[in-house]
Design brief:
0% strand, mainly alpha, 362 residues
Length: 362
């Protein structure tokens, strides 16, 4: 019964991400496909959730206060998104008509077969990574402990996830990210175990998002050649399933897909790389920079492992771009600073905490 409920939550989550992403695309006239729309919506969701959750965490509010507040905000955001979609529908009637006409053109039998193989590969990857894996390590127990303890005590990061004892200080290493508290408030409201939610809902979601990003990258690299895109995604899945080396992002996806680290390795970093690839091709499109900012802003919310990795990747890639082009563009540098600024702010807070300057007593 809980697995059926988890399926409903997964479908609802994907629907929310799609509505958020679609509203942004319609509002700013971004012409992107459904997989990328869902990815944009996912990062937008956590960017907004992070702001509310951090306020609640550091003001030591109860978990149910976060849950109730976020539900109200989520309903409001969905209403706004729906109104944007409705109001812009008539203005974009011609564009929508062109899109519908393009969809009428049926792909060849070979392309349909490749699509079927890709879908089958994704399903097999979900089964392999989520239903069949039995990895239970210390990290798993600790993160699940943080969530279950939060649900049981109606608090957030005040109790230790392994011992269950009340902390003396809020642990910034975990409290600066709202990823696990998103699962905790859902668990508290639905009565479904946080372990089940994290393992199955977030596990399957991680696999789906990973393949959506691979699909988006392939569509960009192969200039919307769907046959090559389907082949590329299928090959990446096969390599992921059979590449049995632990210290790879593939093994994080296969064995630790319920953890924020897996989302960093397989969702955040690939999405950043994909957007930087687009910026490398054309650094004048504001859509590319806007997407990069949203993903960077939400990166810490999704995983604390993104704290240094994301700004480092952005700085390295953009510096390389300027060196190759042999130009020093002020606008280019300014936009890059905007994208890394959120992580720099988190970094300052964490450094102050690590140095004992900033401490939040429980």
């Amino acid at each position: 019964m809980q697995l059926l409920a988890c399926t409903s939550i997964l479908v609802f989550s994907l629907s929310v991400y799609y509505i958020f992403g679609k509203a942004v695309c319609v509002r700013y006239h971004w012409n992107i496909e459904v997989p990328e729309i869902i990815c944009v919506g996912f990062f937008l969701y956590f960017a907004i959730f992070q702001v509310i959750a951090e306020i609640m965490i550091f003001s030591r509010q109860k978990l149910h206060v976060l849950g109730n507040t976020w539900v109200m905000v989520l309903i409001l955001l969905l209403i706004i998104a729906a109104s944007v979609l409705y109001s812009e529908k008539k203005a974009n009637r011609k564009v929508l008509q062109q899109v519908s006409e393009e969809k009428k053109a049926k792909p060849s039998a070979g392309v349909r077969l490749l699509l079927a193989l890709m879908i089958a590969a994704i399903v097999c990857e979900c089964l392999t990574a989520v239903l069949l894996q039995r990895n239970i390590g210390w990290d798993f127990a600790y993160y699940i402990g943080n969530m279950t303890t939060s649900v049981a005590t109606d608090t957030m990061y005040l109790y230790d996830g392994s011992s269950g004892l009340l902390r003396e200080q809020i642990e910034m290493r975990y409290a600066l990210s709202s990823f696990y508290m998103n699962t905790a408030w859902i668990s508290q409201m639905t009565g479904i175990s946080a372990l089940v939610l994290q393992k199955y809902v977030m596990g399957v979601l991680g696999v789906l998002l990973t393949n959506m990003i691979a699909y988006s990258f392939a569509m960009e690299a192969f200039r919307k050649d769907r046959a090559k895109t389907y082949i590329f995604v299928t090959i990446t899945i096969v390599l992921t399933v059979f590449w049995d080396v632990y210290d790879t992002s593939a093994q994080f996806l296969m064995l630790r897909n319920y953890e924020a680290k897996s989302y960093c390795a397989n969702v955040v970093i690939p999405m950043i790389f994909y957007l930087l690839y687009r910026i490398w091709k054309d650094d004048t499109k504001m859509r590319n920079w806007a997407e990069l900012f949203v993903v960077a802003f939400a990166s810490v919310a999704v995983s604390m492992s993104s704290l240094i990795l994301v700004p480092a990747l952005i700085v390295i890639m953009l510096a390389a771009h300027m060196l190759v082009d042999r130009r020093l563009d002020a606008a280019y540098i300014r936009r890059s600073i905007y994208c890394v600024l959120p992580n720099l702010c988190y970094m300052i807070v964490y450094v102050l905490y690590s140095g004992g300057i900033l401490a939040m007593e429980v």
